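In line with agreed milestones, work has continued on tokenised descriptions of protein folds. One protein thus recorded appears below exactly as we store it:

>
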Amino acid sequence: MNESKCIAKCGCNASRRDFLKKMGILTAGSLVASPLLGNDFISFAKENGVIMPVIRGYGPASNYIPKIKVAFVRRKGEYGMAWPGAVYDGEASRKKYTEQLKLESKKIGVSLEIKDSPIHSLEEADLWLQEAKEDEADGLLVMVHDRQQHAWPTAQKAAESGIPTIIFSPLGTSFTTNTANLANKSGSVTYSTDDFNQALFGLRMLKAGTRMKRSRCVVIKGEERKETLLSADTGITLQYVPANTFIKAYNSMPVNNEVIKLAEDYLKQAKDIRLASRQDVINGIKSYLVAGKILENEKADAISMDCLGALGNIDVSLPCISWSRMNDDGIPAACEADHGAIAAHILVQYLFDKPGFQQDPVADTADDTLIGAHCSCPTRLNGIDTPPEPFDLIHHHGNRDAVPRTIWKIGQRVTLLDFIPNEEKSQLLFSTGTVVDNLSVPPSGGCVVSVKFKMDGGQEVLSFPGFHQLFFYGDYKKELKDFCQLYNFEAMIV
């Protein structure tokens, strides 16, 4: 399948580093270890003549390849008169889908174990499912190629196995009477279509859910070092480290030629520079490199910080540039040590390969819009492997440091996501709409990245629920609903 079509349909693209290699942007000598802090936690990639750092994750999620068991299901022998009928070449279809799965699984980043022959009976189905449990498979893909006999009972058994299950039924292999019982079945998602992109998105969901449950986020806050679980259903581990870990590393980092060069390259990319100084950008680059080193030391996949609590009253750069660039690198980076935002950043990046903009919601009653306001916004809004949107460099609303003010495309479709962790069952609140404006701050007050968003429904903006929701490019309401069903989260469409 054409890669650009795959990205558009389901976000199936490789890591930014792999993308740069494929495009020939990483040439000999252009991807090197950083001598800055005496380790290899950061590499440098040359993009359009500009040297850009690329920080990577070091945690269990970043280094794990999900294991997916795949089986085709049909009766033994010819189809005959019963659906899908003698007109359907089941063996040719199995061969075609097997080749596609092998090809696309490499792009998606999952390991598939495809059963050599179809499942021809319920007894064979039981043996396959038992093997999947013993092998601790991360997910199942059931390719239903029949409407008769054991085919749909096998799909039902898989959905009830306790292993997250995607069921794919090409047209002609099911009636609604077959799919009705599975339509809203928690722990599984059924796709009845000839559009194989839906099955591939199912693999992406299995990958995202598996990686989420293995994610480790370092949280820079307070004075205590401790480890906790964000919530049982996310599986995300929070590793708290004292705030002075960041402060000491920042103060001890020299401003050498390498740091200055990185800052100058960043300044070259800015569309406009207002209020923020060259030194502010240098300081922001320092915070980015310090955060990357902490990520490596803590073997983490994601990062967050009580930034205002730790740094608001001292002369250490707030991590606005740092978090913006980490989200562009494909490292989930959440502001203000917000647990829900941590989970939301992880989910959006793992599922859609796009960074999200964590924001404070502001109502505008003149036109019933919601304004997302914050001082750290990623720039690669179209996808981690895409060129950045235009951005300005401006002060934080506290009149200090440097903030990338990303210019969002007017008319762009956007999804809003609020992740609400709960020990019993976490909730995902989401909505869709369209970008209508980028407000200028000043003259308005508040955070300097202020994106105006017109929601599709008739929501009451003054009482819109949640806080620190993520805005991200694309219309993904259906996909998020499917993910919630697959991993037993509560979906709240607003």
User: Anything to note?
Assistant: Residues 173 and 432 are 33 Å apart (CA to CA).
